[in-house]
Design a protein that fits this description.
- The protein is an all-alpha fold and 179 residues long.
- Helices cover 74% and strands 0% of the residues.
- α3 crosses α4 and α3 crosses α5.
- The longest helix is centred in the N-terminal third of the chain and has 33 residues.
- It is extended, with a radius of gyration of 22 Å.
Length: 179
Amino acid sequence: PWGIAVLLIYRAHFSGPLLNPSYWLAHFPPGWRMSGSALLRHLGHLGWLALFAALAVACGRGMLRQLVKLDDLNVFEIFSFSFGLGVGALAFAAFGLGAAQALKPAFVFGLAAFLAVAALWMNRDLIDRPQRAAGALFSPGSGILAAATIFILLFDAYQALAPEISYDALVYHLAQPGL
């Protein structure tokens, strides 16, 4: 609600290109003017990001189920807590590699493989148990929370990818370092 209010106030008081769809189609995302090889490279990066997110969710769900033993959460809570717990576990594992001075590609891929096998073992109940009825998966509250989370993530992505237009931000980002 606040994001929509801010955009409507901005639209009413300023005449910039921020809310002009033709501006965004011309400048955002940069994939519109990207070569085929660069697009494939970026899709590869997005694939690695998706694998990281899947590994984080799988590790976090396994820890949530095996170590904490919480069984009365809905699907949205399981997914969000699993992702947060998994990212924390992956960050802790990466810190351990860095502290051991073993932060090299072979060790990182080995750690990822080990964590993937451990996540498969910890999540073996997904294969063994029958799926619950579709009505039991989501409650009205989880749907509202999921919609709010998606809105917040989209708005944050919009803010993160929007070009800087204020004078102070431009001066800060374009300043030459003085030593």
